[in-house]
Amino acid sequence: MVRIAVLGCGRIGRMHAENIAAHPRAELAGVFDVVDAAASSVAATLNATKFASAAEVFGSPEVDAVLIATSTPTHADFIEEAVAAGKPTLCEKPIDLSLARVAACADAIKGTTVPIMLGFVRRFDKGHSGVRQAIEAGQIGELHQVTITSRDPGMAPDAYIETSGGIFRDMTIHDFDMARFIVGEEFKTVNAVGARLVDPVLMERCDDYDTVTVVLTTASGKQCVISNSRRAVYGYDQRVEAFGSEGMAISENQSDGNTRLYAAAYTDQKAPLLNFFIERYAQAFSSEIDAFVEVVEKGAPVPVGFHDGQKALALAEAAILSVREGRPIALSEVE
Amino acid sequence: MVRIAVLGCGRIGRMHAENIAAHPRAELAGVFDVVDAAASSVAATLNATKFASAAEVFGSPEVDAVLIATSTPTHADFIEEAVAAGKPTLCEKPIDLSLARVAACADAIKGTTVPIMLGFVRRFDKGHSGVRQAIEAGQIGELHQVTITSRDPGMAPDAYIETSGGIFRDMTIHDFDMARFIVGEEFKTVNAVGARLVDPVLMERCDDYDTVTVVLTTASGKQCVISNSRRAVYGYDQRVEAFGSEGMAISENQSDGNTRLYAAAYTDQKAPLLNFFIERYAQAFSSEIDAFVEVVEKGAPVPVGFHDGQKALALAEAAILSVREGRPIALSEVE
Amino acid sequence: MVRIAVLGCGRIGRMHAENIAAHPRAELAGVFDVVDAAASSVAATLNATKFASAAEVFGSPEVDAVLIATSTPTHADFIEEAVAAGKPTLCEKPIDLSLARVAACADAIKGTTVPIMLGFVRRFDKGHSGVRQAIEAGQIGELHQVTITSRDPGMAPDAYIETSGGIFRDMTIHDFDMARFIVGEEFKTVNAVGARLVDPVLMERCDDYDTVTVVLTTASGKQCVISNSRRAVYGYDQRVEAFGSEGMAISENQSDGNTRLYAAAYTDQKAPLLNFFIERYAQAFSSEIDAFVEVVEKGAPVPVGFHDGQKALALAEAAILSVREGRPIALSEVE
Amino acid sequence: MVRIAVLGCGRIGRMHAENIAAHPRAELAGVFDVVDAAASSVAATLNATKFASAAEVFGSPEVDAVLIATSTPTHADFIEEAVAAGKPTLCEKPIDLSLARVAACADAIKGTTVPIMLGFVRRFDKGHSGVRQAIEAGQIGELHQVTITSRDPGMAPDAYIETSGGIFRDMTIHDFDMARFIVGEEFKTVNAVGARLVDPVLMERCDDYDTVTVVLTTASGKQCVISNSRRAVYGYDQRVEAFGSEGMAISENQSDGNTRLYAAAYTDQKAPLLNFFIERYAQAFSSEIDAFVEVVEKGAPVPVGFHDGQKALALAEAAILSVREGRPIALSEVE
């Protein structure tokens, strides 16, 4: 059994703790949160140890590996501590909102053999990874165009938006990683437009956007479009489409239960889409823990590494610059 | 050019006349209807000859072939006249409501080489015939089960229902023919249940049913289910499903235009189904004329013959008897 | 925490044990199996107590409730023991292959207040229960016709088939329960046909059928069709369709991952269907445990009771008689 | 009856001629083509007059209106002649490959009351226009993002590509018009990327692209993405998606016949998409003639005018400049 401790007992940390507890080859080594009540609640529900500090977690011989689900500003520090302590770590995205801090962290852990895995959970979604597998299996020939549609079901609370680092670093970052995962090749240019259509007042105040479109291109000419919105009233819209010389692969949205209704005014009506990431990506979050257990237990290669977190953030930086300056940005300008 | 005259200028006769007029290798030789105004209207719109009588049609050297879209009681007589006159004929279903009259007609035209084609239009639908083609191509292996769902969008007028010969002879008859077409083997037993759920008062008065389920079996054990209703509020529901040892083929319903809507309360909503047969089977009616022109022009084999009309009616008789007596009926009991 | 013990550690028992272990408000009180190795394996994997006998389970004060997943012939005995011991019980279907034994069991436990819940897991599937909810919410008006398509992905091992009690008692029984659940009204007549198309030799030897169609009717005229096959090569085909005066509700099949492929020869291609019940009904099995925990913990009404198991079996008996005698059977003939 | 003559008897001219001949309120006044054999063939098949010259067509009192389906370089001249002759005209797109020539033509016909309609046929597709109707009906609230996917089934012949004016003027121009139609607001900026992935040698030679992505924005911040490819092996891919504050409307691709196949290796497989525009937009081409007849017969407002052709071409110019200069282009730079 791999004994995994969870740092951070907010909504996502709690979900990870439950998945670890339910995993046949893992057990929940304990939890920690700066808000003691949050840690206590998870510890009680899952019958797990409550640690007094992060340091105690990293120092414990009862802890084989660590999952970091704390607030973003702590991620880079914890990754460095994990490497120092020799604890394989799965860290929620992003590594940090600052590319400079990420670079410093990269330097600090340079050459380490301690596995650091990044929580780009969507890579583990069967639909999305099915698209990648179709490409690798040659089922669509040479890849030409990728379309990623990614819309949240509703605006996060104002407080979250204000500190999120902006839509590109917080939301699109998942799609940047998905784009890299699907395309399997680095991007060369980033071309982004942004608008304030859902909540113009808040967006104006945060100098942020709620509606963005990004076009990425590779040196070989592959094109990838990302469409984001902070609010899709019909639910959490998550689609990936890959078009190639010999075909197309699509990862479609998923409904909850597959009941369809027909009436005098309509046919084929389904319920709104699964809502929100904890429900939509339930299988992916569970498979992510699987993959992490493989890494810790069997030394499997890290499927999504520190480097991937760094690359996604660089794409976000380039997108921000692109909107600000109204021109395409070469990725080399920000890296 | 094949010169085709149309007998009967009601809704379906008018539609056929238009399809003939629009056909590149056919022309409308003229029309006739006992209601002179109906014939005049079609003749004027399509710039066609108006015949004074059916006899005149059958006698005219300007008429190469005849399409019969008159009321049911005239069909058998006109078929006999067509054979006598040597005019290839496409006759709307059913041949007659009485098996005895059909048998007499069969005797009367026995041995003729004049092509008599029956208007089981659904055989020409690309979706339904696609299912048959999949079977013939071996794509689903040996056929085991067929499911036909066939529901009208709404009750026909009372007057029509009262003289239709009942749901089995009027509506299910299309599905009996479809069942024979898909299965490609004769049925041995008919097992039917009927209910009065849509308009119990009218059904009681007509000793008819508005909601029926029929199970047909062949000597080799193949099973076919037909589900009928006189009223599907969401439109004209027309589906065929064939299940076999190596797969399944489904002919799905068709929407008008393929627009799908997503809103806070639902996703994937489409418009009601195409409504009614003239719209839903527009392609099939047009292809039916194509096939008839092939028969007349090139002596192609008749794709749906008199025999098929007779068989479908026998199945209807057996279904009526099955409901009345509450037991499965061997087809041999009615033939 | 509700402490639930599991009797029977075969494939389904193991799955239930895992679901109990993973349930936030339940814990696995222990397991028992006559095959000691099976029990040991589950006990080790899930870190659970291994009981020495069923009697020990029923006698243990550490056991709040029992889940019975042993072989069918033991079910009725264990239910009686559970009632005697006052342990709320969730028992896999069927209660017994003999209606007489079921009736005796019913007598034996008559008047008990100990909750006995039957494992008709499909009632807990979100898609299927969504259809029932649509009916209850009046979204399709008065119910007229129900179509249940239910096909296994492949033949069970010969040994299983030989002792299963036949397709109606083993496989269709789920659909009989689904039919009762969806219709919400008892059936009056059963009309079944059976064929030997998948494995004629085995079926002949067992006097069984691998391909069956059943038509059920209620006193009010509602019609329900069940189509079963022992082998659908494209996966586990599980669909429910309810048609009513104001609309239709359909529970569609579910694919694994929702990836669709397009190539020169086809479009919209998906993977085969989820395979088999443990995967397809994963959500339902988990929700079933939820429901059982509600029953034990809070005294919630039993959602599927002993009576439902008895009714489903009576429908199976009637279907067997219908095929044997080639006629519709009134349910009153077998009850 | 509206008497319409057709100039140009290539594939598209012939199709228009057939639609006119089949239209209940129109008749084919005659045809003309510089290649006499082409005109003769259509005239013979449709039993129509063959004109000796375009001038004869414009001068004929037997011609109420004209449809121009000749090669692109003749369009502007014929439009000017049509206006001079007072003949309402439906002209295939584009007006000309040169914005300057289009502007000159606009000057030449300035103030005319002769209706000039442009053949942006996709506006008449029920699926695409259904999206626009949903927007107008307020069903998706305020429009935020539009995604147009538009891919040809295969490369046109080299000779066509070489004289087409490039992908933006020849192929994307339809999507530019669709974007304007769906959005209902003028675009302000055009941002395009192009690649040579399908046939790099030919594209290099023609200084053209076979794979392009275009992002359009309006002053109010609406975003529209167009994805084009010269070759989609699975057929003619034509989709439109509109996302707004209260929902989403999608116009899906259409299959031919709606047969779906299930086998051991897959489910839900459909045939390749309808191929090519004459099949896919058959309904739209027919409805386009309808609309033109309304214009000529009843003086209905022109649904797609000269101005729309001019605007679409300006967007194409801006896209070409955007790819060439690697920057977003304000539409004001090219107009």
% residues in beta strands of chain A: 15-25%
Secondary structure tally: strands of chain A: 14
Mean pLDDT of chain A: 96
Helix and strand pattern of chain A: EHEHHEHEHEHEHHEHEEEEEEHHHE
Estimated helix fraction of chain A:
25-40%
| Domains of chain A, number | 2
CATH class of the largest domain in chain A: Alpha Beta
What ranges of chain A have pLDDT less than 50 throughout 5 or more consecutive residues? none
Reported by name, the CATH topology of the largest domain in chain A is: Dihydrodipicolinate Reductase, domain 2
Biggest interface found: A-D, 38 and 38 residues
Summary keywords:
homotetramer; alpha/beta; Rossmann fold; Dihydrodipicolinate Reductase, domain 2; 24% strand
What does this structure look like?
4 copies of one chain form a homotetramer. In chain A, helix 6 (126-136) packs parallel to helix 8 and helix 8 (167-183) packs across helix 12. Chain A has helices spanning 11-22, 36-46, 54-59, 75-85, 99-108, 126-136, 158-163, 167-183, 200-206, 277-280, 282-298, 306-325; strands spanning 2-7, 26-32, 65-68, 89-91, 116-118, 143-151, 187-195, 211-218, 223-229, 237-244, 247-251, 259-263, 266-269, 329-330. The mean pLDDT of chain A is 96. In chain A, the strands form 3 sheets. Chain A has a 7-stranded mixed β-sheet. The first copy, chain A, has a 5-stranded parallel β-sheet with strand order 2-1-3-4-5, sandwiched between helices. Chain A contains 12 helices and 14 strands. The radius of gyration of chain A is 20 Å and the shape is globular. The first copy, chain A, has 2 domains: 2-114, Rossmann fold (3-Layer(aba) Sandwich); 123-280 and 311-333, Dihydrodipicolinate Reductase, domain 2. By secondary structure, chain A is of the alpha/beta class. Chains B and D meet through helix 1, helix 6, strand 11 and strand 12 of B and helix 1, helix 6, strand 11 and strand 12 of D. Strand 11 (247-251) of chain B pairs antiparallel with strand 12 of chain D.
